[in-house]
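Possible race condition, two jobs.
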Amino acid sequence: MAQTQNVWPALFARGIFAIIFGILVAVYPGLSLALLITFFGAFAVVAGVTSIAFSIANRMTDSGWKMHCFEGVIGVLAGLAVFIWPGLTGLLLLYIIAVWAIISGLAQFLASFKLPGGATQTIIMIIGGLVSIVFGAYVIYEPFVGAVAIAWLISAYAIIIGVLSLIVSMQMRKT
């Protein structure tokens, strides 16, 4: 349990960054695609690095650490992809975001059952994983709902994931 206390600040930072990202997209839904790509890339890299740090720090006590590490690697790769190829079309960016959300959500969902801690942490991680999976599936199913609508979906998703990350980090801080 002591190792989860060492990781809570990183998870807290991930939550704060996700909420800031979500608020910026909500306040400025008409952002240029380039700015949205930059925001998403930064968010995915920070979330990925946080997951990798969490998995490494807890590899001795968390039997789901490999799933957290996998989630982190996918996040970093997705973030780097949008930085390396900023000229991607909006549709391709949406698919990258959707696939990242589904894989990240699946990894979070599966790892939640092996997370040390109480039932509340497990439930929050399950909800976060399911939100990610549903968000990703919706973006794949309805990619043409309009740029502003997608921006609002991305905003809501980031804020929800950010709040859930803050809740889990605060619970880790207490353990």
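Job #2 (started ~2 s after job #1):
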Amino acid sequence: MTEVLKENLNKNLNKTVSNQYAYQIIDKNNKNLTDITDTTDVIRQVADIESLVQSEDSWTQAVIAELLADKFNHLSVAITAHTSSQLKNTNQQKVVAYCLYNIVFEQAEILRIGTCPNYQRQGIAKGLLSQTLQDIKGQGTEGVLLEVRADNDAAIALYQQLGFKQIHRRIGYYQVPNDASHVNSHQNKLSQPVDALIMQCIF
């Protein structure tokens, strides 16, 4: 990892602790020192989750590190609360969810969001995205965009709960079935492409 990236990650982070998880927002405008001492390991864990939840198009550790070297790109993570108080011990840093996003002038975009499969359906993504949106809004941003598969009902419901509304539909954008574990099934081989929904949250 470059020294520039280490400085960007290590100098800029806000933390909000819930009963179970610490939501940590990397913010390059915040000059407070972060509790996370090994940002390389954090990015590695994010890449590991990516490989599980985005199996057909996952971003590698190198890709994520390069992305975060750009001042417009940011990362927020959810870390298990029982380890967050021990973050100086890098072996105890357990990233369970992440959100990659960028902010350019008054507009932000969610690039990636994912939760480790063993920690899904616990409200972690909602808590992390909610905290991330608060951080984005606090930087004077007018709104946030994201893209989601039209067949991802759970994600769409979550985004709607947080104030997102559909503003556009890309017909037949996704070619890969949503359930990658059944990608070899005859049914999914013959399945039709899935639309992409563009959703927006205006502050």
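DSSP finds seven helices and eight strands in the chain.
Logs attached separately.
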